[in-house]
Amino acid sequence: MTIPIRIDFVSDVSCPWCAIGLQSLEAALAKLTDQVAVEMHFQPFELNPNMAAEGQDLAEHLAKKYGMSPAQLEQSAEAIRAKGAALGFTFNMGIRRRIYNTFDAHRLLYWADLEGKQSVLKHALLRAYFTEGKNPSAHETLIELAAEAGLDGARARAILASDEFSQQVHEREKYYLQQGIQAVPSIIINQRHLIQGGQPPEIFERALREIAAAQP
């Protein structure tokens, strides 16, 4: 018998550690398919909610936000690339030059959850930005990714041309901020247990086994 577990994965599509955390979590879940039945929901968090539509040079942004020197930026980028590679995710650092506003991507992810396609779209968005260097705020890119995820492209276009799901996304962002979530990824299991950061698969596996074993 499998134990039902809910996971709320709070993250941003422009966060490299969120991509690493998701790959790691899914590696852990692959070892537990006969023990847990997971219901996964991707929840919105914007690292840069005030980012302009045209985005910002990535190196400039990181240097300003975190005070990182060029050498530190290079070291961090290599650490991220290596961790991603070890988990089967490709970070093409050379083609990812800018960081963008991600609110519209979160609106589509909210809709995709209603349509049962959220995980597929989430993976497509992460791959588009980190592997292919695409702009995750560009509407044509978002429409293309939605269609590739099995969603209705015309419906995606209509959503993006309106403010549909904006209120819902803002409400969810506010809720998690009020819960004390200040960094991502934040993985909330059964709405009670919190694991933060791009942890290795064994950390997720151990936590999930313990939580499943403790359930009545």
Verbal overview:
52% of the residues lie in helices and 14% in strands. With 216 residues, the chain is α+β, with helices and mostly antiparallel strands. The strands form two sheets. The chain has a four-stranded mixed beta sheet. A hairpin with a 3-residue loop joins strand 5 (186-189) and strand 6 (193-196). The radius of gyration is 17 Å and the shape is globular. The two termini are 12 Å apart. 34% of the residues are buried.
Features:
single chain; alpha+beta; four-stranded mixed sheet; 52% helix
Enumerate the spans where pLDDT stays under 50 for 5 or more consecutive residues: none
- Mind summarizing the main beta sheet? 4 strands, mixed
**What share of residues is helical?**
40-55%
Could you tell me the mean pLDDT? 96
Order of helices and strands: EHEEHHEHHHHHEEH
